[in-house]
Amino acid sequence: MSASSTVTMKEVDLLLVGKTGTGKSSVGNSILKKQAFKTSSSLVSATVGVAFEFSEYKNYSIEVTDTQGYGDTRLTSKEKVEDLCKCITMAMKANDGKGFHAVIVTLRFGNRLTDEERDAITAIKRIFPGVMSTHGILLMTGGDMFEMERKKSGVVFQNWVHQQGKDFKDLLEEFGGRIVLFDNNTENEAEKNAQIDRLLEMIDSLPSFGERYTNILFQAAAAELLKSKDESQDFIIDRTTLRSTSVLMDKFEDCRRIDEQEDGADRKVLLEEWNRLLWRCDQLIEQIENRGEREMTGVEYRVVAMRKTIQEYIDAKKNHKEEEAKYRAMVAAQQRLYQEYVRSKILTVGLIVGGTVLGVGALAATIALIVLYPSSLTILLRVARALLPLLRHSIPYVLTPLASVFIQLYRTMRQGQDKK
Ligand SMILES: Nc1nc2c(ncn2[C@@H]2O[C@H](COP(=O)(O)OP(=O)(O)OP(=O)(O)O)[C@@H](O)[C@H]2O)c(=O)[nH]1
Ligand SMILES: [Mg+2]
């Protein structure tokens, strides 16, 4: 187990509410850094009911609950408020009645604060008494549009906020002055992270000091949920598994993506990451198995399947390592042979050149001697005649080792050429 797997993750459960089309689902996707929720530019609410998803970001374990937008154009005014109440009750149930660390109300830059928006906020305040001051955050989407405006006017966001009318300022006051700008369309990774960081920083400094917002309504919803024990138990366990599975699957996809970018990936780090994932899968499977007799759900089967795939990846990596070691050894052997071949070639050339120089030198010296001292010819012939028997006897002793040296050299050269 590596050090990073022991880091305590800070849970942050967020509820997204607001008027239809203000960008709740897009904000959810930006916070989770994945396409978790369906978004649409249609006037009819794209999100129906509630949906939730999870992610891990830095040391935060984030859960986002996205809700159907307030102000669905298909509903009457009364129906809209009732609809929102129903939707938030569903969100509370989906959250196991634990409550939320922050309630994020979305507004859209460029949209006027309409009666519908005010209605929605009044309805939210009724459902969560006092929630805005302790847990509420206003989030303005359309950061890209604001940026275009800023380029023209030169007014930065905080100043723009102060320039707004009384209605807006009153609303902002209810949120303790907390407002954050989000550009859900940005492709800039640093900006994507910076806006999440700004939001998390704001959540960390809420006057609730990290306490979840739970009121009687939440508890009532939880009590209702827990009425039928078996059913609720299944729901709660599945949800916990779901949370971990969702995060693990994201990490699995990340690893797979990095793995495919063969060149950029640090093999050792990647193998560690795969092992860490395997460890987390094992933990999750242990949890599933420990809760006793109950058939596995589809999600749990996915965890088991994911574990198998991760193990296969790790095995493939290890095999790859062994193959790599074998290949390196083979390359080293070839290099050694090639060096021997080069050395033998140098030796051969040296011997031929040396022999030739010596031979030519000796011949030139003899000729010079005979020319300068003709009488030396007789002496030289005598010496040659005396040495002849000796030379005749020594030929096998000289030629045999010389021949074997040349044969050996020839063999080495052939081997070197074959290996090349
Ligand atoms: N330019 C721009 N468009 C955005 C931004 N955020 C969201 N949108 C667009 O606004 C439209 C509505 O976004 P959604 O996220 O579906 O809004 P929603 O509040 O979830 O809508 P409902 O589920 O219908 O209530 C989509 O076309 C988004 O692409 C943003 O920051 N900038
Ligand atoms: Mg939506």
Automatic annotation (TrEMBL):
<keyword id="KW-0812">Transmembrane</keyword>
<feature type="domain" description="AIG1-type G">
    <location>
        <begin position="9"/>
        <end position="222"/>
    </location>
</feature>
<keyword id="KW-0472">Membrane</keyword>
<dbReference type="GO" id="GO:0005525">
    <property type="term" value="F:GTP binding"/>
</dbReference>
<comment type="similarity">
    <text>Belongs to the TRAFAC class TrmE-Era-EngA-EngB-Septin-like GTPase superfamily. AIG1/Toc34/Toc159-like paraseptin GTPase family. IAN subfamily.</text>
</comment>
<protein>
    <recommendedName>
        <fullName>AIG1-type G domain-containing protein</fullName>
    </recommendedName>
</protein>
<dbReference type="InterPro" id="IPR045058">
    <property type="entry name" value="GIMA/IAN/Toc"/>
</dbReference>
<keyword id="KW-0342">GTP-binding</keyword>
<dbReference type="InterPro" id="IPR027417">
    <property type="entry name" value="P-loop_NTPase"/>
</dbReference>
<keyword id="KW-1133">Transmembrane helix</keyword>
<keyword id="KW-0547">Nucleotide-binding</keyword>
<dbReference type="InterPro" id="IPR006703">
    <property type="entry name" value="G_AIG1"/>
</dbReference>
<feature type="transmembrane region" description="Helical">
    <location>
        <begin position="346"/>
        <end position="373"/>
    </location>
</feature>
<feature type="transmembrane region" description="Helical">
    <location>
        <begin position="393"/>
        <end position="410"/>
    </location>
</feature>
<dbReference type="Pfam" id="PF04548">
    <property type="entry name" value="AIG1"/>
</dbReference>
